[in-house]
Amino acid sequence: MLGDHAVNPPVVLAPMAGITNVAFRRLCREQGGGVYVCEMITTRALVERIPKTLKMVAFAEDEDFRSLQLYGVDPDVTAAAVRMVGEDGLADHVDLNFGCPVPKVTRRGGGSALPWRRKLFGRIVRQAVEAAKPYGIPLTIKMRKGIDDDHLTYVEAGLIAQEAGVAAVALHARTAEQRYSGQADWDAIAALKQALDVPVLGNGDIWEGSDALRMVEHTGVDGVVVGRGCLGRPWLFADLEAAFTQGADYKPVLPVLGEVTKIMSRHAELLVDALGDEKHGCADFRKHIAWYLKGFPVGGELRRRLSMVASLAELDDLLGKLDPGEPFPVGELGQPRGRVNAPGKVSLPHGWLESRDDDTVPEGAEMENSGG
Ligand SMILES: Cc1cc2nc3c(=O)[nH]c(=O)nc-3n(C[C@H](O)[C@H](O)[C@H](O)COP(=O)(O)O)c2cc1C
User: Fold this and answer.
1) Suppose 91 and one of 62, 68, 235, 312 were both cysteines; which one would form an S-S bond, judging by CB atoms 3.0 to 4.6 Å apart?
2) How far, in Å, CA of 69 to CA of 41, rounded?
3) pTM of the full predicted structure?
């Protein structure tokens, strides 16, 4: 449950900046039930009504549970953004991002650096929850384990958020230092579940429907949040639904190449629609191509041409050169995809670690939408 909204199956598409726009969400929603979170929106840009930001808060008419992630570092600005979401009827659910590990964000004290400053974190979450209340909007948070293994925050932050009245807490079970490397620590998710009474959502390394079942069994979480596993594989949401309804014996969707290319064409068309023209839609689609074709025999030259595709006709022409009967490369199942970068020391503002109870709002930490 998220507030009054039953989430069935208990699956959430993780917010991914530059990915989970209205086009990608539609493709995923068509595959199965769950909550499908919009791209992250910066609170300051929202309250300043920056046109580009307002355009990103786009939902399809049939999105019956419009879920929006906000990023903020200032309790007042965050509350103002949440109020605006309520007043303008922009969304039905708001999630706050405290997981972004991008250096330009943590260096200013934002994203995954913020929960360390527990008083400031508490103020942001409390004010956001209060702002959401009159509109009946459930407010959730998404966070990492902490800054690094010596500076873990997740249990304390979870308790603070619970006390503030959040509807659920999601944990991406890596530290900021780990970025996307190594394995997510599902034991930490289990520990958080033990510590909290509010629903806990587990996130990290769900590549298949079976992984989701394993995570639930291992941690007791109320739901799963799925990010990179669905890149180039929107049908993963069909698998997730099948796994939750049929159990471990579900049959995974294994599209042949011709079916994959059909979904690719559709994704590109939806992006053209969402972004307003073919040039921008096709340019945006390029980042998805390698994910869709991962493991299929495509050939270097065709891959190169696809990576520069500039129109829908060209895309269809190039995809038409592939063998539609080629079976799904089952060796890809269960394998990490998307970002898998190396760990890196977390850039923080001067003196950040030494003053946990300082609740000064960090300056300059509201960046362009960058995700995390
Ligand atoms: C390209 C990309 C963009 C992301 N953007 C966001 C974001 O805007 N907000 C957020 O909370 N997490 C963001 N994340 C993190 C994911 O939501 C998720 O927590 C992470 O990928 C771990 O889950 P996974 O193992 O299922 O991928 C992003 C991840 C990726 C790969």
Assistant:
1) 68
2) 6
3) 0.96
Active site residue 28: no
Ligand 1 pocket residue status of 97, Cβ below 6 Å: yes
Query: Is 371 a residue whose pLDDT tops 70?
Result: no
Please identify, by atom number, the ligand 1 atom nearest to the C-alpha of residue 226: 26
Can you give the pLDDT at residue 189?
A: 98
- Cα 324 to ligand 1 centre (Å): 31
Give the pLDDT band of residue 370 (cuts 50, 70, 90).
very low
Q: Is 205 in the pocket of ligand 1 (CB under 6 A)?
A: yes
Segment 4-18 mean pLDDT: 95
pLDDT score recorded for residue 46: 96
User: Does the pLDDT of residue 372 top 60, yes or no?
Assistant: no
pLDDT for position 99: 97
- Percentage of the chain exceeding pLDDT 70: 98
Can you tell me which atom of ligand 1 is nearest the CA of 69? 9
Q: Is 37 a pocket residue for ligand 1 (Cβ < 6 Å)? A: no
Give the type of residue at 182: G
Give the Cα separation of 157 and 265 in Å (integer): 43
**What rounded mean pLDDT belongs to the chain?**
96
Task: Quote the pLDDT of residue 340.
Answer: 78
Catalytic residue among 28, 100, 230, 282: 100
Say yes or no: CB of residue 123 within 6 Å of ligand 1: no
**How is residue 202 written in tokens?**
């587990």
